[in-house]
TrEMBL record:
Stretches assigned to the HTH lysR-type domain: 1-58
GO molecular function: DNA binding; DNA-binding transcription factor activity
Keyword Phosphoprotein included in the entry's annotation: no
Domain of life: Bacteria
PROSITE patterns (UniProt xref): HTH_LYSR
InterPro entries: HTH-type_LysR_regulators, LysR_HTH_N, LysR_subst-bd, WH-like_DNA-bd_sf, WH_DNA-bd_sf
Record family assignment: Belongs to the LysR transcriptional regulatory family.
Residues in the signal sequence: none
Keywords from the UniProt entry: DNA-binding, Transcription, Transcription regulation
Matches recorded under Gene3D superfamilies: 3.40.190.290, Winged helix-like DNA-binding domain superfamily/Winged helix DNA-binding domain
Lineage of the species this protein comes from: Bacteria, Pseudomonadati, Pseudomonadota, Betaproteobacteria, Burkholderiales
Protein name as it appears in the record: DNA-binding transcriptional LysR family regulator
Cellular component terms (Gene Ontology): cytosol
Amino acid sequence: MNVAMVRLFLEVAEAGGISKVAARRQTVQSHISRQITEFEALCGGPLFRRTGRGVVLTELGARAAVRLRAWLHETEQLTQDLHADAGQLLGQVRLGIIPSAAHPLLTRLHERLEVAQPGIQLDIAEAQGTELDAMLDSGAVDLAILIRFRKPAGGEEIPLCVAQTYLVSAPGDELTRQPTVPFSRLAGLPLVLPRRPSHWRSALDDAARGLGFQLRAVLEADSLTVQRELVARGTGRALYSVLGPYSITNDLKTGRLQASRLVQPDLRRHLALALPRHGKLSPPCRVVAQTIQELVASWGGHITDEPLNDELLGARTAP
């Protein structure tokens, strides 16, 4: 059983298409398809059923994926343990992260590991919360930095910090000139919001319903970059969005956006480091998890070394 072939099989299974994997690996589709055919012959039968949209696992393929994922984890764990015993950590850590928390945390994390543990290779996947949960469940990532609406109680998730929520507008807007804005003021505002289904969108909708109104979403977009651009540029009218601090810090510094913290309710969110859900924490994963916690602690409990503050917000005392 070849480790590289097992990895390829699991990658195709998770991607749901040979063409996606070929593009990701920057090779031709026929090369991937030929390797999968050879692996299917080794396993004694077809592992995938071809469809118009890609491939899906056969019954044999589904059984094989479960067993081979566990086998691959044990094999990688053994290699890592042997290197750890020899005094050198070596291995890949697959880290999932929500887009708003990615920068500059990942840059600083990479810099520290390059100096302290050059044998650890990071494999980064950016995704939204629901997708990250699915990736953790399937074993597609080892660790994940994601948002929870309640403080993690420990166990499989480690609390990192708390993020407030902000109403964001273009510069000069009267409503976001104040340090805080009651959530009830969102009633009737033209908002750019994330698409459903989304835990964050559901939380916003629930908060509005609790206050007796419905949010007015004039545009929907999952991309934080798209949301910020739409608000900053506008389309002949004022647009607003509801975002966390880490996705807007740079735009506030450059004056492209203006923001006011939402209160009543505060809608605090907890950033957490989720640990592997299958098997024990490998030595490289343990080092990465510890380094992430140390970085956040060194930044005063923020996910960035430039936390959102009153100076960036342009906060002023309300008349």
